[in-house]
Amino acid sequence: MINFFKTKPAVEVTIEPVSDSFFETKEDYLAMRQAWKDYINEGKHKTEGLESCHHLIYAVLRKQDVFKGFKPIESQLKLINGAEKYEGIRQAISTMLWRPTEALLRPFGNTVTSKMIDDVRRLVKDLTIPR
Question: How far apart, in Å, do the first and last CA atoms of the chain sit?
């Protein structure tokens, strides 16, 4: 069981991994990280687009805290007016579930497969998000 939180949240959220790793070798993992880095450094994130769902996938593939990049809404006014505390990650998950796989693969070059994206989708679609 992987705990994607670095700090203990109000509600413990863990995800059962599909396997110990999404990558067969350390070199495959490092190639994915390099492809992501190249995508950013070449400015493609500005021209081709990089969305919150891509950051979510990147975090899951790296077995990182999925909430790290999604700061909870703390504004009392926003919360009173109906915003949910973890609305950002909810939207990222929703976008990831309906976005075409090809669009989700773009920042990773040829280092991530459609099967990996499907595995990530299975992991996060039933994620219980604290309220």
Answer: 22
